[in-house]
Amino acid sequence: MNEAVSEGATLHYIFDPLCGWCYAAAPLVDAARGVPGLKVEFHGGGMMTGANRRSITPQWREYVMPHDRRIAELTGQPFGEGYFEGLLRDTGATMDSEPPTTAILAAESLRAGGGLDMIHRLQRAHYVEGRRIADEQVLKAIATELGFDAEAFASAFEGLSGESTARHFAESRQFLQRAGGQGFPTFVLTRPDGSASRIDIGPWLGRAEDWKARLAELV
Questions:
Q1: Could you tell me which of 12, 10, 4 has the C-alpha nearest to residue 178?
Q2: Among 31, 104, 143, 203, which residue is least crowded by beta carbons within 10 Å?
Q3: Burial class (CB in 10 A: 0-12, 13-18, 19+), 191
Q4: CA nearest 89: which of 114, 115, 64?
Q5: φ, ψ for residue 128 (rounded to 5)?
Q6: From the centroid of its chain, how far is CA 74?
Q7: 3-state class of 15 per DSSP?
């Protein structure tokens, strides 16, 4: 990676709200937001949409729990009983990336930085509290918790549902392909001259302060 970064660099975060390793990277995203001169932009890839949506089953719980425990060991990220013993046993729940991504887009449309705030809050709602973040009523409640006006959020959510969210997914996937990323999360640092570098965050997981210091050196 070319590490010479000009002022005005942007860190692009290609993610999915239902991606466990994106939750693992959440402290790195938060740390990056505190780096002077660095803009952080999100790109939702729609990991669990359409035919890839999943219902919660005992088999799904058995599959994800070892990964979640590994994430907790590596990063210190919390996983709550509401998730392990609540949501992962809730066979009526559906894992669908589209509604939470629409909520993220709606939050950003109402407040600069609101999308990243919503991503962080939805991850906690899912992995700690065990809430159904594909449920529109849950999303509206979380928006209110974040200080958004209920009517304004509901209107923005409705306006961005469907075609706008699908277009966002398509653009994010194109960006991921151009960046040479293999999945979520992928981080790409772009410069005002148009050059871009993909960053391997593996060495930085669980080391948010070191990551922040390194980014500050690059900006």
A1: 12
A2: 203
A3: middle
A4: 64
A5: -105, -50
A6: 18
A7: strand
CA distances to 14, 75, 100, 205 from 202, rounded to whole Å, are 15, 11, 26, 6
Instruction: Concatenate the DSSP letters of all residues of 44-105 into one string.
Output: E--TT-GGG-EE--HHHHHHHHHHHHHHHHHH-----HIIIIIGGG-TT-EE-SHHHHHHHH
Asked whether 34 and 212 are in contact (CB, 8 A), the reply is yes
Nearest 10 degrees: Cα torsion 132, 31, 187, 56: -20
Helix H or strand E encompassing 32: helix 26-33
Strand partners of residue 40? 11
Give residue-wise pLDDT tens across range 40-65: 999 999 999 999 999 999 999 999 99
Q: Which residues pair with 199 in a beta bridge?
A: 187
Q: Which of 191, 144, 183, 204 is nearest to 43 (CA)?
A: 183
Q: How far is CA 31 from the centre of its chain?
A: 14
Q: What is the pTM of this model?
A: 0.94
25, 203 Cβ separation under 8 angstroms:
no
Say whether pLDDT at 138 is over 60: yes
Dihedrals φ, ψ of 198, to 5°? -80, 135
For 203, which DSSP code? Answer: G
Burial 117-152 (b: 16+ CB within 10 A, else e): bbbbbbbbbbbbbbbbbbebebbbebbeebebeeee
CB atoms within 10 A of CB 178: 10
